[in-house]
């Protein structure tokens, strides 16, 4: 006897997960890099903290604006393609039915079955069938600009707050190694959690994010130290 079971997939998380991980990762890396770079230039703790706060605010707004604009462009393209498909269905439905059947033939159905599937799907929801199978657009994966913008800005601010709070609580002589070390720990945790949420390797996700974070911190520290010596 057949028993139905509920399958748990993660593709519905792609939109917000990508924006959230990008925001948090950028918040940690850019703010900790800014803190370490300014500190390496022999700035005071007050100056380091002010620079970090300014970076948090500017970065969060930049992430929100950037995500909204980029995802809005994707959404505009999706809407334009769907509208074009709607017009084609209204003017030449037979061609569209044959086009959909050809897609199913390429996926492995024989010609007669592909025509039958195309006919039945279009009778149920012609535009939905073409959007999903011809254009690759589905409700689950459609672009959501506002959701992406808020996710990026919020997680950027949350990520940036971690190195800032560390800098505020750490004595000045130990500021650079402590901020860098704790930021790398945060990055490793973030990479592991993101991989876990997406169903990927936790170790691989943690290592990938930590490597690029360490590279960014090392570069900004070197640049800060260099300019701290050459600039009056």
Notes on the structure:
The protein is mainly α and 232 residues long. It has one domain. Helix content is 81%, strand content 0%. Helix 2 crosses helix 3, helix 2 crosses helix 4 (111-133) and helix 3 (93-106) crosses helix 4.
Low-pLDDT residue intervals, each spanning 5 or more residues: none
* Discrete helix count: 7
Q: Major β-sheet, in short?
A: none
The succession of helices and strands, N to C, reads HHHHHHH
SS-based class: mainly alpha
Structural Rg: 25 Å
Task: Say how many strands there are.
Answer: 0
How is this structure best summarized?
By secondary structure, the protein is mostly helical. The protein has helices at residues 14-40, 45-91, 93-106, 111-133, 145-169, 175-198, 202-230.
What are the salient characteristics of this protein?
single chain; 232 residues; mainly alpha; elongated
How are the elements arranged and paired?
Blueprint: H1 14-40, H2 45-91, H3 93-106, H4 111-133, H5 145-169, H6 175-198, H7 202-230
């Amino acid at each position: 006897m057949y028993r139905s079971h509920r399958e748990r997939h993660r593709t519905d998380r792609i939109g917000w997960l990508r924006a959230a991980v990008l925001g948090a990762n950028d918040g940690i890396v850019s703010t900790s890099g800014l803190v370490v770079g300014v500190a390496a230039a022999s700035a005071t703790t007050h100056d380091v903290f002010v620079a970090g706060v300014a970076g948090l605010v500017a970065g969060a707004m930049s992430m929100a604006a950037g995500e909204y604009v980029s995802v809005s462009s994707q959404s505009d393209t999706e809407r334009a393609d769907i509208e074009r498909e709607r017009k084609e269905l209204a003017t030449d439905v037979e061609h569209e039915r044959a086009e959909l059947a050809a897609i199913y033939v390429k996926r492995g159905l024989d010609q007669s079955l592909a025509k039958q599937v195309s006919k039945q799907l279009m009778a149920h929801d012609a535009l939905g069938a073409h959007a999903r199978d011809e254009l690759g657009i589905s409700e689950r994966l459609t672009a959501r600009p506002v959701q992406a913008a808020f996710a990026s800005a919020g997680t950027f601010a949350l990520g940036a707050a971690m190195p800032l709070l560390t800098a505020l609580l750490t004595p000045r002589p130990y500021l650079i190694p402590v901020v860098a070390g704790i930021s790398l720990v945060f990055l490793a945790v973030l990479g592991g959690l993101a991989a876990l949420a997406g169903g990927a390797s936790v170790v691989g996700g943690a290592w990938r994010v930590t490597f690029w974070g360490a590279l960014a911190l090392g570069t900004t520290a070197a640049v800060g130290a260099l300019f701290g010596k050459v600039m009056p």
